[in-house]
Amino acid sequence: MRNAWLQVILIGASILLVTALHFATPLDRITLHEIYQRIYYIPILAAAVLFGLRGGLGAALFASLAYFPHISMHWHNHNSDYALNQYAEIVIFNLVGVVTGLVGDSSRRSRSRSERTAAELQKAYTDLRQTFEQLLQADRLTSLGELSSAVVHEVRNPLGSIKGAVEIMEDALPADSPQREFADIAKREVERLDRLVGEFLRFARPPKPAVAPADINEVMRAVATLTHQQAAVQKVCVETNLAPQLPLVKIDAEQIKQVLLNLTINALQAMPKGGQIVLRTLLENEKQSVVVEVEDKGGGVDPAIAARIFDPFFSTKEKGVGLGLSIAYKIAVQHGGSLTVRNGTHGAIFRLSLPLGHNEA
Ligand code: ADP
Description:
- Strand 6 and strand 7 (348-355) form a beta hairpin.
- The protein has a 5-stranded mixed sheet.
- The chain has 3 domains: 2-122, no CATH class; 130-204, Helix Hairpins (Orthogonal Bundle); 212-355, Heat Shock Protein 90 (2-Layer Sandwich).
- It is rod-shaped.
- The chain has 8 helices and 7 strands; from the N terminus they run H-H-H-H-H-E-H-E-E-H-E-E-H-E-E.
- It has helices at 2-24, 30-39, 41-78, 80-172, 179-204, 216-233, 253-269, 324-334; strands at residues 212-214, 236-242, 249-251, 275-284, 289-295, 338-343, 348-355.
- It has 361 residues and is of the alpha+beta class.
- Bound molecules: adenosine-5'-diphosphate (ADP).
- Adenosine-5'-diphosphate is lined by residues 266-267, 270, 296, 298, 301, 309, 314-317, 320-326, 348.
């Protein structure tokens, strides 16, 4: 805005300067006067290019008003033919102002049209990229699901055989044999492995969501309550910032609670020395979705690994399994929504978006 005023002042000043030159130059230096009168076109054209019809016509009128007294006061008596010529020049000032102004306006319109098109294209490209990345991620997760169920079956069968074999060996042992203790250990370990493998399968292939209308704020409150104790131990304050009167959203509340618990636990782990977690809900009108955010002050996700944190088995933690976010992502997609991350001023902000119109998962 300040720039525009500066341009107007410069245009006005140059017109006044040319007029001053006319007044200061003796009438017998006619060549100089002819040069000056043409210099008026420079600010007129500049105004037309910068401000369109308003600018071109405005500058032309201003130049006409500024030049007119000089013609009527000096040239009228001195050389009436030349004066007539100059009046005609004034008319041309205005014609040039109008024509170049119209051209300026139309080129500005087409520039803003192409800028709009470029912005729309850019948005379409970003959306497409996002969808592509989501598909890629979903594909990776599907492969993980298939792979893990194959591995789980491969592991479970021999585990069953081992258990059976240990039981047979155990039966053959005398009741007071000290080796019974080893057989017990072997059986317990087999059972532990079996449980672990089952758990892994449950994580890797979450069941299809059983959706029902639910209040997402209720889910958030449950998450805050469940994590309250651990947060207190770590001196982390869990704050809820829930949008009032959110519409019910069709979700599998248990699964979404798992996702949010995962995100909140990650947030807690990112702040071993205390801090703050904000659990936020909001309605995104444009997208017709309910948005849930988990924000922490743990320093954020290192940009170098941001693209990989939703990958299965990716973890930067010493004892991390690296499944939490990939499962959360999968659940979000199964709900027709999305899970993304960005860094805020002090930490990571995980954003789960759930469409309102999603009826079936
Ligand atoms: P895990 O917790 O077992 O490492 P996740 O899939 O939950 O597995 O997380 C993957 C990785 O994402 C983490 O190891 C960590 O590097 C990163 N991460 C997750 N949540 C956060 C967070 N709130 N702040 C910073 N980094 C995070």
